[in-house]
Amino acid sequence: MGNQKCGKHSFILDKPPVITTWASVAGKKESEGPLSSTFDITKKDSYFGEKTWEQAEKRMQQIALEQLSKKAGIPKRDFGLVFSGDLLNQCIGSSFTLRNTGIPHIGLYGACSTMSESLLLASMAVGGGFFDKVVAMTSSHFASSERQYRFPLGYGGQRPPTAQWTVTGSGAALVCAGGKGPQITGCTVGTVTDLGIKDANNMGPAMAPAALATIRTHFEDMKTSAEDFDLIVTGDLGQLGKEALLTIAQKEGISLGGKLMDCGTQVFDLLKQDVHSGGSGCGCSAIVLCGHLLDQLNSGKLKKILFCGTGALLSPVSTQQGLPIPGVCHAVSICGG
Amino acid sequence: MGNQKCGKHSFILDKPPVITTWASVAGKKESEGPLSSTFDITKKDSYFGEKTWEQAEKRMQQIALEQLSKKAGIPKRDFGLVFSGDLLNQCIGSSFTLRNTGIPHIGLYGACSTMSESLLLASMAVGGGFFDKVVAMTSSHFASSERQYRFPLGYGGQRPPTAQWTVTGSGAALVCAGGKGPQITGCTVGTVTDLGIKDANNMGPAMAPAALATIRTHFEDMKTSAEDFDLIVTGDLGQLGKEALLTIAQKEGISLGGKLMDCGTQVFDLLKQDVHSGGSGCGCSAIVLCGHLLDQLNSGKLKKILFCGTGALLSPVSTQQGLPIPGVCHAVSICGG
């Protein structure tokens, strides 16, 4: 029968690609949070041995890729293809990670939805028979993000209570045509959704409508519901965005069945770590997936999750020009190995 | 037999996806160049009716998408998926084009390789059976690029003779599972290649090694050579980059058989239009492909081309931090309809 388009925006994989290996790298604050024990590598040095934060972000991706190679027992040059992107202008974290490695690279920009975007494309590349051993990867860094999107850290700007804390971390997953591990059974591509929220310090609620749109489409396209999942995992809505999602879901009569978990609320201790509304950044859902969640799917503690990376597609320029914050969310359905 | 990976970095499409429709939008300077008659829509107003150059770039993509829909006779909402990206920080040209259209969107960052990157992914999405009616699209704008990468135009900076002129334009192609038109038979994914060139005003030669690496890999993987193509089309190396590519190809013993054509040297009249080394930007290869080249493939004037979008993966931040300019090139083999 083969792969097939399903409903409006989804597809089913005839032979579900397998996530055989995953790796995560996290910074100091993340390693002091509740998921500390689930990261492969943690570093106390925010510069990761480099001279600038942007280069530190690149270094994290390099470490994640090396760790993935080591755990998989596959030399890096044997990876067939890497799908990756990040938040830095022109995605220099990703392109400088891949330069002169000889590994084919396709660069993405999906803001904080990049972990699910890259997994979705990796499942197309493998499920379509085009490539084997495909890596999905992303990263974010608190200091490079603050400087780029908000204020230089040295300025000492006050962070409003609605703000989220960009996760310093990188996650990578290896998607193969065979082998053992959690499987990707189907995906839904998101639409860019914008209800007019303009506050760049309150991005969770700006992304919540995109998350709901994609979850709803996934349910409709796949003729499924929250009951079929152990968890519905959003990327980085944070506490306020999660509450917004629950509110609008209820309003529109879409049951999330008490299954909603947001990576932004899991990666830090919201009461003790002074992160206001929670974690954010591409690295947020990446390190929660490429550690805690895939570990639990692999061990059978979780049977099936809907992984919904959420991205806020703003830029400092669009904010300065008075434009709202469009959101996007891509969903990947993952079954236990 | 199905699709298959071929050699190191390439794949062959079992049922070649068809580029049924294409559309192009170009600015004033482009409409005064040698390819003037091949663009669908040209505008004399650099703002395209908008208040800012970034919004003008978004408007061009909207016009390209509308024109594609009109030419194809398919309402925009029936497009299955749009792969697109641009040069603006956080790719706001693309995401603001797609917002609230209800069309699934996957955002890319491949700098000026985006037209070939998006075509390559569209051929995977269609060829793998995941989606039908997939759009590959990109844009660039001279004024938004100069301001972002170099100097604000009002500053009146001198452009060195090695500089290229960013094309103001947008191109879109519709890739379908069936129908009439040029066909995508195979693709090669590029590797990020960097030989240490650091001059952001001389990007053609910085990208030439990536172009050669991908062309060589395509020839090896597909067991083909320049003889099998009417043209080998590079994205936007410009005159200097084209010469650099010819020099290093000869040095490494790779014959391009006199078939090399660079979009950056075609889109403007290099002698009369004061563009120094030629055109550049994502829009450069996009408007040359989604007009002149696809028209010629469709009419039988060209039988087969290797379309090699080339991207310089620099950012102002990486330049300020003293880093070189990595290049990437993705190749798409297109046969006449």
Structural description of this entry:
The structure is a homodimer of 337-residue chains. Chain A is α/β, with parallel strands linked by helices and 337 residues long. Chain A folds into two domains: 18-176, 3-Layer(aba) Sandwich (Peroxisomal Thiolase, Chain A, domain 1); 183-335, Stage V sporulation protein AD (Peroxisomal Thiolase, Chain A, domain 1), CATH 3.40.47.40. The first copy, chain A, is 34% helix and 22% strand. The first copy, chain A, has ten helices and 15 strands. Chain A has helices at residues 28-31, 53-72, 92-98, 114-127, 142-149, 203-222, 238-251, 263-266, 282-299, 316-320; strands at residues 4-6, 10-12, 18-26, 41-42, 81-85, 105-107, 134-140, 165-166, 169-176, 183-188, 231-234, 260-262, 279-280, 304-312, 327-335. Chain A has a seven-stranded mixed sheet with strand order 1-2-10-15-14-11-12, sandwiched between helices. The radius of gyration of chain A is 18 Å and the shape is globular. In chain A, 64% of the residues are buried. The mean pLDDT of chain A is 97.
Total number of distinct structural domains of chain A = 2
Poorly predicted sequence stretches spanning 5 or more consecutive residues of chain A:
none
Name of the CATH first level of the largest domain in chain A:
Alpha Beta
In helices, the fraction of residues of chain A equals 25-40%
Largest interface: A-B, 63 and 63 residues
Distance between the termini of chain A: 23 Å
Proportion of β residues of chain A?
15-25%
